[in-house]
Amino acid sequence: MSAVNSPKLYIAGMGMVTPVGANVAMTAAMINAQVSAYKSSYYETAAGEKITMAQVPGEMFATFKGEIDHGSSFNIRHDRVIRLAILALQQICAHQTEKAVPLLLAMPAIDADAEALSSFVANLENNLKPWIDTAITRSFYSGRASGLEAIDFAFQYLYGRDYPYVLVGGSDSYEDFSRLFPLERDGRLLTLGASDAFAPGEAASFLLLTPHPELAEQRNGQIIALWPPGISDELGHLFSDEPYRGDGLDQAFKKALINQPENSIHSIYSSMNGENHWAKEYGVAYLRNRKFFKDPVRIEHPADCYGDLGAATATTLIALAAEHLFKNKKAQAHLVYSSSDTAKRGAIVVEKLNAAERIT
């Protein structure tokens, strides 16, 4: 299926903490079993309705061993985001290395994260030496699609450089009323009386990527490759006065699928979170690119189980797609996409390859 000369990045490791699982395998198993972490939270709307959220269980935070410098700007959300990130990265950083690895961080949109987590990277560096170095860390502030934007950066600027690995991922949480209030004001948060709304979640998810297939994680002689992603902008996004036409995600699909054969994509892993807007967007993109997908195509939107993961969305979806490919003999390739509240849209093909053919 693959074009031999096409540049690819290979998954060398995956780490994850979500409301339904302490790692990738557990999260995938819970989603396959349709286990939901949705619960009424202690946050309320202005009308006194409980907001439904999907939160990481407290016992997960109890497993954290490390030291956190709260810096000049700190709140509960800040603490949770740092701890989740370290827990997820520790699952990857068992690999031995004497050199720091470039870290590309998916972050919320700046206006949704005013403090910009000022001590975030410093805390990662202090707890994960020698893997993390602030000097070779870069952040991407576009919300749900930022993980794909970060992978695009890896292809554009790090591919072919003297780095055997690159870390890509994000950690995010809505555990902060200042983050919830604008969403509640716009009627977007899930309550007993709301339907066109979403459940805020929280998670950390990271991928260890390599341009060298011999360094990729192998299972039963198979490895997972990422093709260069398709990145685009939706002019008619949620905060725009422009009319919504669905062109942004359509173009992201087209760019991601440009080198793929027809009827080759087994499943679509989607960032849809329960709001009607995203279902309409998906419908437009799918119909305009349907020749690339098997009929019927399998559609996965795991926010139904773990809530909206914000900046951790894209890499979580990629890891879940990879886990499915490893375990499903018939599936060869999936499309993962993620859409931000703002303009950014991203899509990527995740493909299973024979390790022997790629390494020789």
Task: Please characterize this protein's 3D structure.
The protein has 360 residues and is an alpha/beta fold. It contains eleven helices and 13 strands. Strands 1, 4, 5, 6, 7, 8, 9, 10, 11, 12 and 13 form an eleven-stranded mixed sheet that branches. The chain has a two-stranded antiparallel sheet with strand order 2-3. Strand 10, helix 8 and strand 11 form a beta-alpha-beta unit. The two termini are 17 Å apart. The model has no long low-confidence stretch (mean pLDDT 92).
Range of helix content: 25-40%
Classification by helices and strands? alpha/beta
Rg, rounded, reads 19 Å
Q: What sort of overall outline do the alpha carbons produce when their principal axes are compared?
A: globular
- Give the SSE order as H and E letters: EHEEHHEHEHEHEEEHEHEHHEEH
Distance between the termini: 17 Å
Mean pLDDT: 92
State the low-pLDDT regions, or none: none
Number of helices: 11
Largest sheet: 11 strands, mixed
Strand proportion, as a percent range, falls in: 15-25%
Features:
single chain; 360 residues; alpha/beta; 11-stranded mixed beta sheet; two-stranded antiparallel ribbon; 11 helices; 30% helix
